[in-house]
Amino acid sequence: MSRSLPTPSKISLPFWESCKAENMQIQRCEDCGTYAFYPVYICPECASRKLAWTPVSGRGTIHTFTIAAKSSFDSDEPLVVALIELEEGAMMVSNVKTATPETLSIGSPVRLTYEKVSDEITLPMFEPA
Predict the structure, then answer these.
(1) Domains in the chain: ranges and CATH
(2) Helix segments in the chain, DSSP class H
(3) Which of 53, 123, 127 lies closest to 90 in space, CA to CA?
C-alpha cells in the first residue's frame, strides 16, 4: 500500500511550496503574532485576516505520539505519528523518522527534515534532535 498524498488547495499551496523548497513556512498573524497551522483565512487567536507566510525554525518537541509496529508504506520500520509543538507555538501532526522509536518520549526535542515523495510533494518530517 502506498502513502496517500495531500492535494494542495489554494490556501495550503504556499505551505507545500515552502516544503518543496525545504524551507517550511507557516502563517503568522501580523496583529497578534500567533503562528497558525493548518492554513487558515482568519487568525485563531484574534480573528485578524492579516496572516503572512513566515519561515519557522524547524525545532520542536513531541507533544504526544503513537508507534505503529510496522508501517504499511513500503517499509519495515515502525511508523511514528506525532503531534509536534513547533518552537513558534503552532502544533502539527507529522512523522518522526527514527530507527529507535522506543527512545522517544513526550517532550523529546525534534528537528525538521523533509521527504520528497513525488515531483509535486515534499513532506515535512521530524527526527530526534
Answers:
(1) 13-128 (2.40.50.840)
(2) 13-20
(3) 53
Question: Taking the model in full, what pTM does it have?
Answer: 0.90
Say if residues 10 and 125 touch (Cβ distance below 8 Å).
no
Distances (CA, A) of 64 to 26, 43, 93, 106: 21, 24, 10, 6
Look at residues 119, 58, 67 and name the one whose alpha carbon lies nearest to residue 97.
67
- Higher-pLDDT residue of 72 and 101 is 101
Residue scoring higher pLDDT (79 or 55): 55
Quick check: 109 pLDDT over 70?
yes
CA angle 62, 64, 67 (to 5 degrees): 100
Nearest to 57 by CA among 25, 83, 12: 25
